[in-house]
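Lab meeting, action items carried over

1. Structure of the three-component assembly. Owner: GW. Status: complete.
Input record:
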Amino acid sequence: MLDVQAHLPVLIVTIPLICGVLTIATGKGWKPWAWATAVTGTVFYLTILLMQQVLASATGVVSYELGNWPRQWGIEYRVDALNAFILLIVAGVGFVTTIYAKKSVEKEIPADRHNFFYAVWVLALCGLLGITVTGDAFNVYVLLEISSLTVYALIAMGKDMHRGALTASLRYLILGSVGASFILLGIGYLMMITGTLNMQDMHERLMSVPGILESRTVLVAFAFLLVGLSMKMALFPLHMWLPRAYTYAPSAVSALLAATATKVGVYMAFRFLFTIFGVGFSFIAMPTTLVLATCASAGIIVTGVTAIRQTNLKRMLAYSSVGQLGYIVLGFSLANVNGVAGSVAHILNHALMKGGMFMALGAIVYSQGRCDIRSVRGLGRKMPLTMAAFTVGGLGLIGFPLTAGFISKWYLVQGCLERPHMWPLAGVVLLGSLLAVVYTWRVVEAAYFQEPDDDRPIAEAPLLMLIPMWLMIGASIFFGINATFTGKIAVTAARSLLGVGP
Amino acid sequence: MTAVVLIDTLLLLLVTVTAVAIIEVRNLYASAMLTSVYSLLMALVWVNMHSMDVAFTEAAVGGGISTILLIGTLVHTAREEKPLKRRVHGKALALTALCGAALIYGTFDMPRFGDPKAPIHHFRVPEMMAQTVGFANSTAGKQAPPAGFDPLEYRSFNGAVPSVPVDPADTAWRETSVLAQHGIMLPKVNGHALHPAEPGHHLHPPDDFNGHVPNSVTSLLAAYRGYDTMFETTVIFTAGVSLILLLRRPRREGYLQRSAPLADQAILRVVSKMAIPFILLFGLYVITHGELGPGGGFQGGVVVACAFILFALIFGRPALYRVLPPPVCDLLTGLGVLMYSGTGLACLLLGGNFLDYAMLDPISPGDGEALGMTLVEYGVGITVSMVMLTIFNQLAEERSK
Amino acid sequence: MTDVLGIYNYWIYVVLMMIGLYGVIAKPNLIKQAIALGLFQTGIFLYYISMAVIDGGTAPIWTTIEDGAQKFQGPYDNPLPHVLILTAIVVSVSVLAVALALIINIKRSYGTIEADEIERMDHEDRLIEYRAGQAPDAADDAEARHHA
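Predicted assembly:
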């Protein structure tokens, strides 16, 4: 009756939508969590099927027209290797984090709200997946607003633990709405000049009509889109909302956000810069490489230094996240195959490592109530598996060989060295690794080499938290050792974005 | 200077002055009321620009709901803004001046206001306007295209206009789209109506809907870009759920026994008792009539919500909870979104793509598209009205002392 | 100069947008910021709708036929930006609702809705957290145990 294979792109977004709404009816206790886990698991399975479909297709693109309207007039879902990869990451992380969420949500959110919390959680995933799969510019804006709105509510639910969650969420709301409004303005300028909203169609228009790329309107549209997207990607110096948001959000929400929200922002930047405007305009005609590379490098160094000075470990990891996003932006600002491939690979690797590390911190909060550098002392002995996960994640951040971080940094450095004047950026990449060594070592030293303040018995984290944590960290080691899959997809995606043949 | 331009300039001047006043006034209640005035002036500006649906939505949502939200919040927070140390914030002024200069720089290459040569008027939108988009994917339930029609040529039309004639009255070039060449586009400005209406019917576009939808905005909203509207409904649903998450508090004992605040005012009581049924009826009318004139699910939903909110204000929230208990309200909120996505899913299960209303043809022969659009408009209306009511309820919750 | 006459209305929309943006950045009162955000977004909507207007056009609703003669023969305005702005208005009011809910919660937790006072309280919270989380060095440790 239903040919699932033919409708995969739309099912990936519609199933979380319908089931997210139905979550409100699931009642109390463990039932909302179980329902959310089932839904996210199904969606993860569907994204695997979609990836297989994309890899097996002749053109490398799966296109789905909603309402059966031709794509130039209706809304199109367009999935190529890049999309499918990011869908896989977002759905996978969503699934694993939902399993993890049971214990931490039980502790941090009042019991009578769980069904509403998981409803908003699943809808957030729906929004993030929708942004990644759509091929229509205005649809991206609407889904961006869904994902943003749900995230504001999720972050603010940390208010029972610390009132800072409220200001963090409101600040993110104001800055995020201004950024989204800039993106809306950019889309409007583009629509005025090209006359259409479909991304492929816009690109063909911009390439074919003579003189259109020199018009001032397109220039201003590009500038405002870049600013709006930088706010969403948390590119330095527009990253001010991120540290507080990740610190005060509930632990499960921090893990989900760190691995997905900003990555989807990067994906949007890919689509706008590479697919709509094209590499020729974005990187050769405009000084985008210079601007993005400067901001990214400054971000890596400044946030690395700031991270070292933090006592609250969640805030430390939040600053570290901004730095790692700097790597991703640095990669694609180089606009060569190695750079973009490194960027795409780092999206996966960072998602796995940071997600795992935030889960570890969440486990510490679960057992101790707080996670600063003092409460972590001696935990190496009392919570060995948790601290081991954190340490391996930290090695990944540094870029230690055999971890996934090494693979993406390798591509990035190669990309930097290929461009004649960009070799100082390779130095920035290595400097960033050095800073990561310092702030990871602080935690490792406190956990393994220092004595705890008192002798309270501290149990290891519950199994439902340990398994997801080690799934993520284990995956980062696996992809570090066996980089074939990641490398192949990243290079394919980079080639298709840059418009060079396979 | 035509009358239209004069009115336009006057309205925009009023709007700008109101905007500055909203920012600068210290009393927050005054600011909220000025926001309501601003929304109404905006609605007038949009009526002047012939965008009826948008004006309606702005008046209902901006003028009505936003004001209720703001006043509901001000009750819980503060009356006045703290006096500022410096009257004008220098850095902000510099930043916004820079932004504004950049935006104005971008306007120089824009098509002028009302220019018929603008790409947006002759590239993809004319087919949407004439509601003839579906011919290329002819499925059962969509009209068959005329003989000699080539779907490939239709899809790959690149909007190229070889030369634009000097005479503004000569507009035939605007209909050089493929459909015009097949004689399908309507209307032609030089007065030839190609498809006379059947007697007793509205002139309707030769739609590949099998229903009649004179309002092109609704056809775009519910059919061509129906997927966007589904997510818009989800956004408003999410706002409702977020407010429940953030603001709902466990019910205290005895709150249902509180007396009605305004029911002892005779005029208010009598007038609202007479008006509320008509407001509800009007809301339902707007939702249903949205395909034929300005209106639709959003506007109608807001009007229905206003009826309930008026009832709550005059007769007290306990009376509202007796009429519409919160569990029912929560249930109906989700029902609207499920109706919308359920319609799409039904189309999926019946063999088409998601939201392909032509698949509903077996249920309502010859009118599948119209049925689909009606269902989704009702879904939108139900969700919007219930969410607005939910938001009002959460903001009006009593503070525990 | 005809150039300017055709586009000066865009400049007015830009002015409106910038008034809103100024309010978001400059005003410390949170409710003012929320309202100004709405103003900024309304300016953008005005810009979109102005894209749809065509000379001599009317609302994009097909008119009735009476006695065989068409009532209106001119071009119709473009319905696409209208649809987009309907969506955007609803999104804008949803964001406003969530912002106001957050502001009510902030008032309950912090006691004020002025951003500078809240910033000060947040800073104090962070100082306390910083001092509690700092690892005292070994000498302090030993001394503390000696006195205990």
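2. GW to write a short summary for the group page. Key points so far: The longest strand of chain A covers residues 62-65. The two ends of chain A are 37 Å apart (CA to CA).
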